[in-house]
Write a structure and sequence with these properties.
This protein has about 375 residues and is an alpha+beta fold. Helices cover about 50% and strands about 25% of the residues. The protein has two domains: about 210 residues, no CATH class; about 140 residues, Macroglobulin (MG2) domain (Immunoglobulin-like).
Length: about 375
């Protein structure tokens, strides 16, 4: 019976494998986008931990089977399907990472890191033949360990800073070392044979993540900007915000407010932002006000105004800053953490107001 199932499964996989992987990837990415909601929910983390556990089990089993060469038909069947399962699991992991990191990313800043995640997601489908290679397994697994540690540790601790980043990197190294030690007990020769490649790939991935982090190219996950804009007036009553703004043009459909701000000297200009943070999370947030110097072709910081946020609210912790001492010209306000990680950006141009305007109004509860 098992022999018959084995032959049919092998024939079916050989025939349809090239179609199954892209379909599984696309289906998984859609499902992740629809189902993965909050980065701090236990069920979301359980899904990722389950993926990682299956990946570790698959890698260990494939190497045990290769070393022992079992004759049992069920174990042979398991060995046949595990490379395909491993590919699906890695695809699911990087799909989930793409969903969470893209929600925290500011595209104009974090596009190199997002490009890496997209490359891993697509590359996962292109390198099927490598799913029987130990060094390839462990390199991808370490990348997944690091990508998960980057937001799992801050969620547990309740803040993000350099110390938490280093702790995340340390955890990822500890996890991959444990897996390598287990593999060494299973097949010492395989680890010895691949040690130079493994060491080089782990060092490269660790260094790459750190370069991206210290150049502010990794999104400040688990923080994410839910909304932000420039406003003419803000009235607050308890948890209710009344916002007055100029409506964006039809071709700026993705913006909260217009990129043109009509201003009269002495008026306040408000920046409002809502930032999602996990439950029990505490963080200092700043609005970094900058004006564009046309003559020297550079952005000049004019002010940095901050407030503290607390996590847990689905719509994000809301806050605002304002300035009255401004100049006509192009402005941008970066929403940043205290260690300069960019959560989002509001760009607008201040022009002189020559007539009264009728503002749109929004109630944010």
């Amino acid at each position: 019976m098992i022999k018959k199932i084995y032959k049919k499964t092998k024939a079916w996989l050989d025939k349809y494998e090239k179609y199954l992987s892209p379909v599984a990837m696309g289906f998984g990415f859609v499902i992740d986008n629809l189902t993965l909601q909050r980065i701090d929910l236990w069920i979301e983390n359980l899904v990722i931990i389950t993926y990682l556990s299956i990946a570790v089990f698959s890698i260990l089993y494939l190497n045990i089977y290769k070393k022992k060469k079992y004759k049992n038909r069920f174990l042979s069947l398991l060995n046949l399907i595990l490379p395909f399962i491993l590919q699906i699991v890695f695809g699911g992991l990087f799909s989930a990472f793409m969903v969470f990191y893209s929600r925290s990313a500011t595209l104009f800043v974090s596009w190199p890191f997002l490009l890496i995640l997209v490359s891993m997601l697509i590359g996962n489908e292109l390198f099927r033949e490598r799913y029987e290679r130990l060094n390839f397994h462990l390199s991808i697994l370490y990348l997944a360990f690091f990508a998960y540690s980057v937001f799992a540790v801050p969620v547990l601790v309740g803040r993000i800073d350099v110390d938490i980043w280093m702790a995340s990197g340390g955890l990822s190294l500890l996890l991959i070392i444990v897996v390598i030690l287990l593999l060494h007990r299973i097949d010492p020769e395989a680890i010895k044979k691949n040690k130079d490649y493994l060491l080089g790939s782990i060092i490269f991935i660790y260094a790459l993540f750190n370069v991206l982090y210290f150049t502010n190219l990794i999104p400040p996950i688990p923080l994410s900007l839910k909304s932000a804009g420039v406003y003419h007036g803000i009235n607050r009553s308890d948890s209710r915000y009344e916002l007055f703004f100029e409506k964006p043009a039809w071709y700026e459909f993705w913006k909260e407010t217009s990129s043109t701000y009509h201003w009269q000297k002495g008026e306040r200009v408000y920046i409002f932002s809502a930032i999602f943070a996990p439950t029990r999370f505490k963080q200092k947030i700043y609005h970094k006000w900058q004006i564009y110097d046309e003559e020297n072709n550079e952005w000049l910081e004019r002010d940095r105004l901050g407030y503290s946020i607390s996590g847990g609210r689905d719509g994000g912790y809301r806050g605002y800053t304002y300035k009255t001492n401004l100049e006509l010209g192009k402005w941008r306000v970066d929403v940043i953490t205290d260690d300069e990680k960019i959560i989002g950006r509001v760009k607008f141009e201040i022009i002189e107001k020559n007539s009264d305007l009728i503002f749109d109004q929004e109630i944010n509860n």
